[in-house]
Specification:
Elements: H1 2-18, H2 22-33, H3 38-44, H4 54-90, H5 109-122, E1 127-128, E2 134-136, H6 137-140, H7 152-155, E3 165-167, H8 172-181, E4 186-195, E5 207-217, H9 222-237, E6 243-250, E7 253-262, E8 279-288, H10 290-295, E9 304-311, H11 312-319, H12 333-336
Parallel strand pairs: 1-4
Antiparallel strand pairs: 2-3, 4-5, 5-9, 6-7, 7-8, 8-9
Helix pairs in contact: 1-4, 2-4, 5-11
Length: about 350
């Protein structure tokens, strides 16, 4: 029995000395001192020991247990101490190092311009609405007086998913959808992303943003359109801004016009921004074509309306004097931090 206890003790102390982590120490403790451990089995066999030898054998078992527990505790403290030292080393903070500057995000110039624009029209009683970017040909072209094979489709070449489904070329389909609902009067603004098959350059992109407005009510005239856009120009570009309407053609409006504003940089005298003309083109507009009203279920004899479309990137470039639209999408913080 003495030799057996000595063997258990030596093996246990050897394993304890080699152990390098807490989990392994726990395994050793269970295998030696646990309910089914080697030392516990020796205690269970005490019934086979002669009565006169039991006190001596019991003392030997207790001494062996005490020695093993002492070594386990000592090794446990040693490993914990090493682990704590390693953790302190990893988590040491060098207070002499420069701090990490927290960089706060802010609104993109496009978003700043959009919110300023929306604020103007909300103040005039407009509602902001949105629609799907993947649209039916019916809403993107047909209901806007652009039937199949119409030459205007060439000017708005887009990305087709199927014959009847495409990426919208303008946010006008939102207007068609709203008119189709028949809830009159209508006074809406529809901003959103649009897609056209354009090459990327300083003023073009296959994906950009438009903001279109629509008003339909009884007695709406060109004078209402003129007054609305004149007010917008003054609030967005400055109180001294003047507007000029030039005749144009759009399939979904009649009459139609392009709108210019006096250059906000030179006040109309002529400069680099306006290329010496004193005027800058900002949007297209017109009275809603009677046929468009009819196709959307509105009686053109009783109701009339006007619509306009603004290129968000265009007015952002103009307002902040940016000369290349690609800067808006390159995520260069040197550029974006200026806003």
């Amino acid at each position: 029995m003495k030799e057996k206890l000595q063997s258990i003790k030596e093996q246990a102390l050897s394993k304890i000395a080699e152990a390098q982590d807490i989990n392994l120490l726990n395994d050793i403790k269970v295998s030696i001192l646990g309910k089914k451990g080697e030392l516990t089995q020796v205690l269970k066999s005490m019934k086979d020991v002669a009565p006169e030898d039991r006190p001596k054998v019991g003392q030997m078992v207790n001494e062996t247990r005490a020695n093993i527990e002492a070594k386990l505790e000592e090794k446990m403290k040693s490993i914990n101490s090493a682990m704590r030292a390693e953790k302190m080393k990893r988590e040491t903070i060098d207070v002499t190092l420069p701090g990490v500057k927290k960089i706060d995000g802010h609104r993109h110039p496009n978003q700043i311009a959009l919110e300023d624009l929306e604020r103007v029209f909300i103040g005039m009683g407009y509602e902001i609405v949105s629609g799907p970017e993947i649209e039916y040909d019916k809403y993107n072209f047909e209901l806007l007086n652009i039937p199949a094979n119409h030459p205007a489709k060439d000017e708005q070449d887009t990305f087709y998913i199927t014959k009847d489904i495409l990426l919208r070329t303008q946010t006008s389909p939102v207007q068609a959808r709203i008119m189709e609902q028949g809830k009159l009067p209508i006074r809406i603004l529809s901003p959103g992303r649009v897609f056209r098959s354009d090459e990327v350059d300083a003023t073009h992109s296959p994906s950009f943003h438009q903001v279109e407005g629509l008003v339909v009510d009884k007695g709406i005239t060109m004078a209402d359109l003129k007054g609305t856009l004149d007010q917008f120009a003054k609030e967005f570009f400055g109180e001294k801004t003047k507007t000029k309407f030039r005749p144009h053609h759009f399939p979904f409006t009649e009459p139609s016009a392009e709108v210019d504003i006096t250059c906000f940089k030179c006040g109309g005298k002529g400069c680099r921004v306006c290329k010496g003309s004193g005027w800058i083109e900002i949007l297209g507009c017109g009275m809603v074509h009677p046929h468009v009203l009819e196709m959307c279920g509105i009686d053109p004899e009783e109701y009339s309306g006007f619509a306009f479309g603004i290129g968000l990137e265009r007015i952002t470039l103009l307002k902040y004097e940016i000369d290349d639209m690609r800067l808006l999408y390159e995520n260069d913080t040197r550029f974006l931090n200026q806003f």
